[in-house]
Every structure is written in structure tokens, then in C-alpha cells.
Amino acid sequence: MAVTAVHQLAQCITCHAWSADRSMVALCPNNSEVHIYRLVEDKWEKMHVLQKHDQLISGIDWSARSNKIVTASHDRNSYVWNLEGSEWVPTLVILRLNRAALCVQWSPKENKFAVGSGAKTVCICYYEQENNWWVSKLIRKRHDSSVTSVSWHPDNILVASTSTDGKCRIFSTFIKGVDAKDPKKESRFGELIVQLDLSPSWTFGVKWSPSGNTLAYVGHNSVIYFVDDVGPSPLAQNVVFRDLPLRDVLFVSEKMVIGVGYDCIPMVFAADERGIWSFIRYLGERKAVSSGSRYGSQFSEAFGKFYGQAKQGVSNDASETSRTRGVVHENCINSIIPLSRQGTQIRRFSTSGLDGKLVMWDLETEQDLLELLVH
């Protein structure tokens, strides 16, 4: 098993983020608060409750260098939290949104953060030293629907977004006076670098590979998309699977991705020496299951959820199949966050979901995946 620890910290977890030393975790228990836990003698103790938003918090990110927490909420606001003494002090960021803020992420240099929203807008926020406040610049009139996820390129300039209009877009976020000028990457703020029309359904969970050469995102049609050479002539491929759709993805190396979502179990995808991506296996299974039988059981499970559970006293073979797979989560996994790295490779990560569980996973215990990571 790849699972190293399972913690029931709430009835439902909307999102979570880790401190730089991984000794504390901030999470939203499906309300307007942020709960910060610290690991004390193998037990998680609640240290702080951050209360400023008045609606559901939909995004949290914790900066590694500056130790700042940024939150985004359905109340259309964002706060940057600074630890002053023993108290977390919030600073309001005016996003100028008329719809909910749905996701947030710090840039690699932590001098900016991006907020996706239901207003078809991406807000790029930065600190204005002269006025001692956080300001935002909006990327408008580019999306046709809500922005579900954002991800920063390692260059700190490009940001990718996914939307419920089925598209993935990459924009320039160059801000004069904030970003160093690079003659090789001259672009103006909000410039659309590329628009990917690969999915006919909602899209979620976009991420860049460690080098920034590959982009991965998922569709609500149970497809994961991989794009190389992002630019005027991108090289795209997709992997179709019969399981329930994914919600988020994480590159654990340049050629390996972990996907999580409605099927309640992490899925591993990897690229071979030719660069062809494919599904490898499920993470945390007690017993290896062939693709054919697994897909068949999932097909039955999907129908069982619609029909079998509606009848009292009717047992579902599919639900029994899920138990024998060794699934840790019991509801949709909505976020996946790295925990430890070795160079550009991620060896441990955490997941949280609508079942209120925070689960730590260790790839070092998975010998076949460890061999793929090394090679």
C-alpha cells in the first residue's frame, strides 16, 4: 500500500495546503473558515481558525518562502494572511469580481497569485509597495464560462486556466515593475498565448510539468489531455478511461502524472520513451487488477450507483469490488498536493476529499512506480 497516514479532520474538506516544512496543514471544512492543524506527537491539533470570509472558501495556497496564506471564496473576495506573533492577520485583496472566486495559486516566485472565478475572469494579484496593498489586474473577455483551475508555468509569467466552456488557455501575466524583462518572452499582460479546444466537456485540474514543457488537464468526459510544445503548434494527445472523471492532477516527475477525482482512488499515468502517455494503474490497490476486468467492474459500478442504490436492500457487487481494491477515500477526491521532493521528482503527496479525509501517499513503497520515476 502507498498510504502512509489517514486523518479524518472534518466531515468534508473543500481544499487544503501545507506549510513549507509540512508541519502544519490549512484546510477548509466546507464552510467560510480555514482550520490550521499542527502535527504534535503523531496527532493533529487545531492551532488556528481563520475567520474573515462570509461564504464558502474555494481555494487555499500557502507560500513556501514568505509563509503567507492566500484564500479565495464564493464571497468574491481574497485575503492574504500574515503570521504576526501568534496571530494570523488578514489583508483584503480587492478582486473586483461580480461572481464567486473559485481557485487560487501563488506564482513560483511568490510575488503574484492568480484567482480564477465564476465571472469568466482570471485575477492576477501583486503587492504594490508604494501604497502598501495588494492590487489585481484582470484578464477579461477571454473565457466563455467559469474558470475552474489555474496553474503557473515555472517561468513565473505564463499561467494556464481551465474552464467550464471546455477549453484550456495559456496567458501572459507580465507586469512591468513586478516581473524582470526578458527579451525572449516579450508579451503584454493578458495576451492569449494559445487556446486548446481538445475537450467537449467541462475542464478541470490543469498542471505544468517540472520543466514547463508539458501541460496536463482533465475533462469531465473521463479524458486526460497532455500537451507538449505549448505555443502556436502544440502537440496534443489524450488518454480515455472508463472510470469516473478526474478533478485534479499532479506531475510527480516529468513523465508521470497522478490523477484524482470522482472514482475515489488515485490513477497513475506515464509516458514511455517515445513520449506516448498511457494509464499505468491505480494507486493503493491491495491486489493488481487487469484493465479489462477493472473497467468492467467500474462500468457496473456506475450503473449500480444510478439504479442499485435506489432500491432498499439491494446489494451491489460493484461496491464490494471497490472495497477489495483498498480504496481509502469514500467520496470524491478534489485536491492533490505535493509533500516531499527529490530534485524535480515528488516522492510523497497528500489528497483530500468530500469525505473529510486527509491522506498521505508514499511512492517509495511502490516499487514499479519507483522504477518508472528513476528512469
TrEMBL record:
<keyword id="KW-0009">Actin-binding</keyword>
<comment type="similarity">
    <text>Belongs to the WD repeat ARPC1 family.</text>
</comment>
<dbReference type="InterPro" id="IPR015943">
    <property type="entry name" value="WD40/YVTN_repeat-like_dom_sf"/>
</dbReference>
<keyword id="KW-0677">Repeat</keyword>
<dbReference type="Pfam" id="PF00400">
    <property type="entry name" value="WD40"/>
</dbReference>
<feature type="repeat" description="WD">
    <location>
        <begin position="50"/>
        <end position="91"/>
    </location>
</feature>
<dbReference type="InterPro" id="IPR019775">
    <property type="entry name" value="WD40_repeat_CS"/>
</dbReference>
<protein>
    <recommendedName>
        <fullName>Actin-related protein 2/3 complex subunit</fullName>
    </recommendedName>
</protein>
<keyword id="KW-0206">Cytoskeleton</keyword>
<keyword id="KW-0963">Cytoplasm</keyword>
<keyword id="KW-0853">WD repeat</keyword>
<feature type="repeat" description="WD">
    <location>
        <begin position="140"/>
        <end position="172"/>
    </location>
</feature>
<dbReference type="InterPro" id="IPR036322">
    <property type="entry name" value="WD40_repeat_dom_sf"/>
</dbReference>
<dbReference type="InterPro" id="IPR001680">
    <property type="entry name" value="WD40_rpt"/>
</dbReference>
<comment type="function">
    <text>Functions as component of the Arp2/3 complex which is involved in regulation of actin polymerization and together with an activating nucleation-promoting factor (NPF) mediates the formation of branched actin networks.</text>
</comment>
<dbReference type="InterPro" id="IPR017383">
    <property type="entry name" value="ARPC1"/>
</dbReference>
